[in-house]
Design a protein that fits this description.
The complex is a heterodimer of chains A (about 350) and B (about 55). With about 350 residues, chain A is α/β, with parallel strands linked by helices. Chain A has 13 helices and eleven strands. Chain A is about 40% helix and about 15% strand. The relative contact order of chain A is 0.15. With about 55 residues, chain B is of the alpha+beta class. The chains are: A alpha/beta (about 350), B alpha+beta (about 55).
Chain lengths: ~350, ~55
């Protein structure tokens, strides 16, 4: 959506009409009509009663987790959680409990050890950003519901637009919408701009606008940004064809890389993220550089951003990648892989 | 029912009591239109801005 003509035009118009920035917090002079319009678009997209826009996706997690879980509460999170989730825990004063990545059994076990009367916030992600793997949400929800006083927050930063009949995310695709209390997301992936949000049906949700420090004590997004986000979100509601193209690209690239002999983060294509696992930093850097010299940019990721000391190249597909481009990408990977000895020659 | 929001109940009650007196919520103002660095439309009314950080225009 970053270059969508309607999205760009909305941003330009807002820039002309409202100026370059709000110069204020959302709770003072920083809420413009456009912020409300953006929240209305989110409520419509997610079918929820409430939506709150943050200045970044990072701040959305920071704010939601640190505010919801207070003294005496517990945050239970996946070991491979995004840095913003860990930082949200660090900003708050709740007790933190980690469970093994995507392990329903470990989640259940750790919840069972916690005081029954304590309030708990379980934080999950639809798609994990480094390996591109998807959470088994129905099994996790079933495990969580065995324990009292649990609320569930799902970060759909990488699932929005890609999963589910309405593009809401993995939680929609897997049919657990009614079980999830909060969905956090970002505007910097599918939406194509910058910003973050949380949507919910909790009747007391609006109080967060007064108590959530990363929402209150920072300047709001510029009018041009919320205008682009709102336009983009509304267009995403009707982006079924783009979703289909993205899936087709993901399947082809994943299958092609496996066929070439690369080790991938997932056995099957699970999202728009495909992680190529390398043995160590030297191989990862060599491979990354070879790809770049051949005309392909990917993200190189290393600890602490990656799980379990992994070095990887993260490929993030776009619905606009053409079939030709996916073919070129595979050719470049093949050449770079052989040149660096990452895969065998044939 | 108690949950993670219960800790905010006193604040919610305080806010509801305040708004019940008929005052406008100072923390939910919407700038419907920004006409210039010093003028905006708030609640449909042209309003002079003296609470922004638009310092140099």
């Amino acid at each position: 959506m970053t270059f969508d003509p309607d999205v760009v035009a909305a941003g330009k118009k807002a820039l002309d009409d409202f100026g370059a920035g709000t110069t204020g917090s959302r709770v003072l002079n920083g809420t413009y009509q456009g912020h409300r319009a953006c929240e209305d678009a989110l409520k419509e997209f997610y079918g929820t009663e409430h939506a709150m826009v943050f200045s970044t996706g990072y701040q959305a997690n920071l704010g939601m987790i640190s505010t919801l879980a207070g003294k005496g509460d517990y945050v239970i999170l996946d070991a491979d959680s995004h840095a913003s989730i860990y930082d949200g825990c660090a900003l708050g004063v709740a007790e933190i409990v980690r469970f093994r990545h995507n392990s329903v059994e470990d989640l259940d076990k750790r919840l069972g050890r916690l005081p029954a009367d304590a309030n708990k916030l379980v934080v999950l992600e639809g798609v994990y950003s480094m390996l591109g793997d998807v959470a088994p949400l129905p099994a996790m929800v079933a495990a969580i519901r065995k324990h009292p006083n649990c609320m569930i927050l799902v970060d759909e930063a990488h699932g929005m637009g890609f999963f589910g009949p309405n593009g809401r995310g993995v939680y929609e695709e897997q049919g657990v919408e009614k079980d999830v209390d909060f969905v956090v997301g970002t505007f910097s992936k599918s939406v194509g701009t910058v910003g973050g949000f949380c949507v919910s049906n909790h009747p007391k949700f609006e109080v967060l606008r007064l108590v959530c420090r990363p929402y209150v004590f920072t300047a709001s997004l510029p009018p041009s940004v919320v205008a682009t986000a709102a336009t983009s979100i509304r267009k995403l509601m009707h982006a079924g064809d783009k979703r289909a193209r993205l899936w087709a690209n993901s399947k082809r690239l994943h299958g092609g890389l496996l066929q070439l002999g690369f080790t991938l983060g997932t056995q099957t294509p699970q999202s728009a993220i495909i992680a190529v696992i390398l043995t160590d930093q030297a191989q990862a850097v060599a491979m990354w550089q070879a790809l770049l010299e051949l005309g392909l940019y990917v993200n190189m990721a290393r600890p602490p951003a990656t799980p379990a000391g992994t070095f990887l190249l993260r490929c993030s597909l776009c619905a606009e990648h053409t079939e030709d481009q996916v073919g070129q990408i595979l050719d470049i990977f093949a050449a770079a892989g052989r040149a660096t000895g990452t895969i065998g020659g044939d | 029912m108690t949950d993670l929001f219960s800790k905010f109940d006193p604040l919610i009650a305080e806010r509801e009591a305040l708004l019940a007196t008929g005052v406008r919520d100072p923390f939910s103002i919407v700038m419907e239109e920004v006409k210039s660095p010093t003028l905006a439309i708030i609640k449909g009314k042209e309003t002079i801005l003296l609470g922004t950080y638009i310092i140099w225009a």
